[in-house]
């Protein structure tokens, strides 16, 4: 049995904030509390408030503000001598690094966060840090290395009845099944995640689950239902100001339209998503949106040599980020468009 979803990153005097609170509301309250704590000389309260500032800023796509805030939270937590609060701050920094495409740095910070949390006896911070490491590996496409960790964290979350973390783990494992071609298994897990998130009032987790369901349904030919689910999820993203999730929603809409052969509409969606990702400095999302854009334009008659050059550039970009699965997607795009593999063309 799962309880109502809560946001453990909202700590101290902010712990009553709902997991579904608007990020602008969270940011305003956190900044106010941070100023109060600093005036009162309470380092721990300042650390808690700084963490909320960091997370709200990160999810709003304000990466410079998020970077300053998590570091300030860590300094305050260190001054207070609280290893749990230090762990949460470093977790936020590691999550931000992953969002910015700095995957090696993300692994470093998240490993440090997990160690701090274990020494500080903060079970939830440890779980979130390990989950961050697992997600980083999954994003890179290293499923063999992180599959068991995902399953371990899912079992731990189920045992504790922690809905939000259960939903996260289900969605991560489902994504690996989807990328491996096990669509029925992926769909069942995304649907379970959506059900748990809905009952636990976890709007963010529910929106991500709907995106996953839409993706798999689209792969099975269910274009209309997929677009309906994405519209439902988009409403949640807009209401909560989930900037990154909204951009990924728009990118997925492009995927659904592309699979349905609606290339002009897909191009428009990818172009919009690319602008959103670039505005928040999220290179992974930007690269994936660019890939969809290149494929759509190719289907609409774009020059083949120019298309090949753009795919070459994307291959290099994804390699620098370390996205192994995404690089495979570029090679699949070459084959789909009838272009030679990377390195197979003669030099100009």
From TrEMBL:
Protein name per its UniProtKB record? Tetratricopeptide repeat protein
Q: Which Gene3D superfamilies has this protein been placed in? A: Tetratricopeptide repeat domain (1.25.40.10)
Q: Tell me, what's a Pfam family for it?
A: TPR_12
List, alphabetically, the SUPFAM superfamilies matched. TPR-like
